[in-house]
Amino acid sequence: MTPARAPRPGTRFGVWLARPLASFHLVVTIATLLTVLGLVMVLSASSVEAYADGGSAYSLFVQQAIYAALGAVLFYLALRIPLRRLRQLSFPLFALSVVGLVLVLIPGIGSRVNGARRWIDLGVFSIQPSEIVKVTLVVWGAHLLASRRSEHASLKDILVPLVPAGLLVCLLIVLQPNLSTTIAVGIVLAALLWFGGLPVRLFVTIAISGVIAAAVLALSAGYRSDRMRAFFNPGDDPQGANYQAMQAKFSLADGGIWGRGLGQSRAKWNYLPNSHNDFIFAIIGEELGFLGCALVLGLFALFVYTGLRIAVRSADPFLRLLTATATTWITGQALINIGYVVGLLPVTGLQLPLVSAGGSSLAITLLMFGIIANAARHEPEAVAALHAGQDGRFSRLLRLPKPEVYAPAKAEAARARSAARGKPGQRGGQPPARKPRSGGQRSTSGRQGTAEPRRRSAQSRGTSSARATRAWEPNYPVTHARERGRSR
Fold first, then answer.
1. What count of other Cβ atoms lies within 10 Å of the Cβ of residue 411?
2. Residue 391 domain-assigned?
3. What residue spans carry the region label Disordered (predicted)?
């Protein structure tokens, strides 16, 4: 009898999803579509303000396009970096980003804009260390938790030094001040703890404490407390604290189902402040209508599916933690932005990833997408296909290196071998005690007769040990896939 075949997906999309590199292509497609949509909408939303300030309607768009090109380069570099090298550089890069957070607070180094020190001016362009630290915290946190992964990991192994480092980052960002980025870092930290295996009760306690701390910070400053009062009293002060939120709702209502048409927004004519940045989703709703908003929501929903798909299909615990955390961070930031634009959340200032104007945010988010795409190429089926020569046109065009086959850490392999050698009733795989000899010395022939069984026993122990070591490794059908590729 021939073995039963697995049922094939019934739709063309299902067949396409079954391909080894489907996750990789989805990540690249989503990043490209969101970036292109963002550039188009930034051009439309910023043209009036840019012309009024500098006489050119394209100045802000050109700046955003330059950062998009920089982000594309970072995306490509993230695709090429080996995961082993990425893990080695995770802590040094995180430490450098923390140093950047300290430097931005020093007068003369950090640039003060609208009462906040968030940027370091390098002449040609400026960087925002608080955006960089989000990526470095994701990578270093995933590396730290994956390295300490074990069945009996203590709470100290999970919390220290991750939580103190995360709280230090939050403190440095609050001092700028920048509550919106603090919330984003809090999302990253919470995702790392959740996917890292923190007990539910302790996680809920920490989450509630974080919400209380965010509420205290929101009420501590004048402009932030005004936003909170405006959210709980939406009808009050329509020309003051509630002006921006109300204009955003008017823009969404004005767009209807089909929208007024690309470039035909009326809110961008100085009716809606920050229309190209924090409230660009309102301009999308006004110009492209409900369908345009649904397109944005659909792309982020597809990104959630793709990111979690990569996390589930990855054999490396580091990649599972990294992709799940990055997906939670980017999606959470998008939901918060859309939530306060439509009036479901108080205004925080978080940008819509890849869509809102903001050079540092765009470039760093594309870098994170590149790391996720690199993780997608390390799925077991993708590794097998790429080593079999089934690269595809896109990978051959970019000349991407072959992904490394995942091998468990030495400590995990040692624990596996130790567990495999152990037998029921024995401690830690220790060999059984020898029985005392009965009678005198054995003859030479007796020793020779027992030598062969001993050799066979040693060989069997070595074979079982090797099998136990391989049992920790994923079953990559590289050889069979290579043969199938040649036969084709």
1. 11
2. yes
3. 409-488
